Amino acid sequence: MTTPPCHPFQKLCCISQSGDIHLLLVATGPHILSLDLKNGGIVSKWPNDAVQSAERQSLEELGNGIVDDDPPAKRRKPNLSKRQQDEQEDDSRDSSISVEFVSERAKGQRRKKKKAVEPVLPNVSHIIATLDGLRVVATTAEDKCIRVFELGSSGQLTLLSERHNDRDKFGDVYALPLHPSLEKATALPSKPQLQKTKPMKPSASELTVHTKGNLEALRQQKLQNASASKKTAPTFEHRLILGHVSLLTDLVVGTDPSNDSREYILTADRDEHIRVSRGIPQAHVIKNYCLGHTEFVSKLCTVPDLPQILISGGGEPSLRIYDWLRGTCVAAASLEEDLKHLISSSAFNGLISSGIRAVSCIQAMKVRDTDDLGDVIMIVVAFEGIPGISTYLFHPEKCLLKQDRQYVMDANVLDIVLLKESGLMLVSLDNVHSPLSTKEPTSHALAPAIRVFGLKLEKFDGEQQFGWVGYDPATGSHGTVHNGSFEDIASKLNQTLQSNDIRHEIELQSATKPNALYSPLGEFLYGLENLRKKSQGDGQEQEAEELAVTHPEER
Amino acid sequence: MDWSTHYPAFVCPDQDMEAGQPRRMSKQVEIADVGCGFGGLLIALSPLFPDTLMIGMELRTQVLSYVTNRILALRSQHQPQPQSQTQQPSTDPSSLPSPSPPSSSFPPGPLQNISALRTNTMKHLPNYFHRHQLSHLFLCFPDPHFKARKHKARIVSAQLNAEYAFVVRPGGCVYTITDVEELAGWIVGHFSGRKVDGEEEGDDGEETVGGNGADKTKGVEELWERVSEQDLQSDPCVEVMREETEEGKKVSRHGGRKFVSVWRRREDPPWPDEVC
């Protein structure tokens, strides 16, 4: 191998600002790039080299190079979703109307052992933009930092604030003001000191304690020194909005189609539930649950043109479509066979990491079909560690969900964005790992890190239908697509994304255990299979029995 | 969810057996005992509401099989006619005797209205009940989880109280009892939204949903109101909860104290756009 591998683009995010500005944000390792979707050029890169070296230094000073040696995915990954209320005209910068949801994914196990390692910049795990496209929020995985950027009219990223979160919590959703107010941020840290003077009072006497375990807990509580170190609350303003008992996997915001001033928060967890709660400040009022998944719910997706529809994907793998306001499932499909088909047509089989099959990405947009069925939603689905995508068509009026086509890629799909206006689909690929594997380094020549597709109306199965036409960087060829030519932008994007300025070289470490599903990088890029419940639980709490998922309506 | 094996006396008569379809019930469950233990509460409540279905929910497999056997044995003891030769106690609900045709002897025999199932209620409550299905939900002598870092595992929290509000109908109640004073304070704090003496700030789970100090927005506590002492006096459920549960008896024997609080579900608050 001549060139070391580069970090793939783990997250894509498209932004339309007012006017005609379309930008693509790309996260590659610890970097965020903004690209102009008109000319494919890089507008801005964060952190730039100056910032980076300064941060490196401060990291070294701060921690003396000491970090937890947990593998990255063992830590919580902040999960972001956000909305901005319709206050765009009122361009008051410090308006705290904007609320951002931060939900946390976490794995419970934490090891206390620490060792000195080379400080590394934390990887960006999520990027999301406000509705008006003026602010961007990004989170990093290892240090659980939430950063807010201003996005200039030509796409420059300017860091506005950063907040570090070190709470060991999961399953909860917090609201944070988009712009932290300085006064509150400084007022909060004094709190923990006050409480240290509180006398320690055991909460039970021997009279009230019944079990051996409780007795032991009580004994320890008594031993505990009043000065015992306390977990400190985040030093920034935050408000608990709602909580699940189990790990949260995704969060989207829905709007009541008959009353667009009423918003709901839709949250998914690893225990097969999707909860529909009222929006802030009434998120404690649960409207209903969307049930029916039999494995963890990995992904939620709403369609801007059809606000009543929620699409969800899970670890079965399956796709379910809900009328979320009523809590009813209007269509569902098992994707097991489609996934098998995709794997067998990818021509890489033999390498497949067993057990991997969760839906990792869902994108949807309204297209108009030609067979007089009215609106049709095109749903694009990617699976964890699979080099290809599967598309589905959903007819809302008929509640009909059918499989459409499959597109094989030369590397595993990481993220997808659809650009409705221009009829483009961008797919980021994992060109570091071998296709169908989440831990073996690839032996193939480096695949492009991103592939561009254009929506085309063409004959398929004897009918005029929409399909995706891929831009081939080698030949530059494509067909005539629906919205004119995308060749130009595709070739420019490809050129830009392969340039040396944005390469973030990495060293691919091999998996620590021989039977591990992921390499350390793979765990960061994928990691969904960690949500799957292990079949043989350790002892008393047999989760398997709880999987006898029931539905109250079926009484 | 197929309830017919739990309450054979309440299966609708004259149904065609459809493959894969649970049989329709004449009633739905309205009372739930979360962490029912050995079933003392259910057995004592059963004659108080003979026409109301009650379910005990228990996480521990062995405890569940005990309470299931106990209920079946009691049912067959109370069988008016000696037709109990088929009623063998069984641990597996699926092998229960098939529902007998609703007897001409209406109302159903005693203890036909109680049953128990094994589940993790903290996780799966919405899988068993639809919105506003329950009139009574009991949380009797829950695990106190003394360690601060375990407080998230407590059965009362801002997060879970929102789920209880989903399954309990407006006017319905959550009944709580504990012998641990600190936990009693915790429960009151989390249903009322008020900080309670002795509760340490900064602990996990200390926050109330929606409420944070000076913040005026209401959290989950706006869905609950405490039932007055006077109303509790006239509620037979409270007496049963104090005296008939196994834990309640144990605490009495030890001379311990019992802290009761009952919370009535309010109507959902109006949407902000309904207020203006």
Automatic annotation (TrEMBL), chain A:
**Which domain of life does the protein's organism represent?**
Eukaryota
Gene3D superfamilies from the entry?
YVTN repeat-like/Quinoprotein amine dehydrogenase (2.130.10.10)
GO cellular component entries: cytosol; nucleus; tRNA methyltransferase complex
Is Repeat one of the keywords UniProt gives this record? yes
What are the subcellular locations of this protein?
Nucleus
Annotated keywords: Nucleus, Repeat, tRNA processing, WD repeat
Q: Where is this region: Disordered?
A: 61-97, 184-203, 533-555
> TM segments?
none
Just give the chief location class. nucleus
In which pathway is this protein known to take part? tRNA modification; N(7)-methylguanine-tRNA biosynthesis
- What are the GO BP annotations of this UniProt entry? tRNA (guanine-N7)-methylation
Q: InterPro entries this protein is in?
A: Trm82 (IPR028884), WD40/YVTN_repeat-like_dom_sf (IPR015943), WD40_repeat_dom_sf (IPR036322)
Q: What does this protein do?
A: Required for the formation of N(7)-methylguanine at position 46 (m7G46) in tRNA. In the complex, it is required to stabilize and induce conformational changes of the catalytic subunit.
Q: Which family does it belong to?
A: Belongs to the WD repeat TRM82 family.
Q: What is this protein called?
A: Uncharacterized protein
Q: What is the organism field in this record?
A: Endocarpon pusillum (strain Z07020 / HMAS-L-300199) (Lichen-forming fungus)
* Classification lineage: Eukaryota, Fungi, Dikarya, Ascomycota, Pezizomycotina
UniProtKB/TrEMBL annotation, chain B:
What residues does S-adenosyl-L-methionine bind to? Answer: 35, 58-59, 120-121, 140, 245-247
Q: Which reaction does it catalyse?
A: guanosine(46) in tRNA + S-adenosyl-L-methionine = N(7)-methylguanosine(46) in tRNA + S-adenosyl-L-homocysteine
Q: Name one GO molecular function term.
A: tRNA binding
Biased region (Basic and acidic residues) positions are 215-229, 240-250
Please name the pathway: tRNA modification; N(7)-methylguanine-tRNA biosynthesis
Q: What superkingdom heads the lineage?
A: Eukaryota
Keywords for this entry?
A: Methyltransferase, Nucleus, RNA-binding, S-adenosyl-L-methionine, Transferase, tRNA processing, tRNA-binding
UniProt biased composition (Low complexity): 76-95
Q: Which residues form the active site?
A: 143
Chief localization: nucleus
Q: Where is the composition biased (Acidic residues)?
A: 198-207
SUPFAM superfamilies according to UniProt: S-adenosyl-L-methionine-dependent methyltransferases (SSF53335)
Disordered: annotated segments: 76-112, 194-256
Cellular component, GO, one term: tRNA (m7G46) methyltransferase complex
> What subunit structure does UniProt give?
Forms a complex with TRM82.
Function field: Catalyzes the formation of N(7)-methylguanine at position 46 (m7G46) in tRNA.
Q: Which HAMAP family match?
A: tRNA_methyltr_TrmB_euk
Belongs to which family?
Belongs to the class I-like SAM-binding methyltransferase superfamily. TrmB family.
What protein am I looking at?
A: tRNA (guanine-N(7)-)-methyltransferase
Q: Which organism is it from?
A: Endocarpon pusillum (strain Z07020 / HMAS-L-300199)
Q: Tell me the organism's taxonomic lineage.
A: Eukaryota, Fungi, Dikarya, Ascomycota, Pezizomycotina
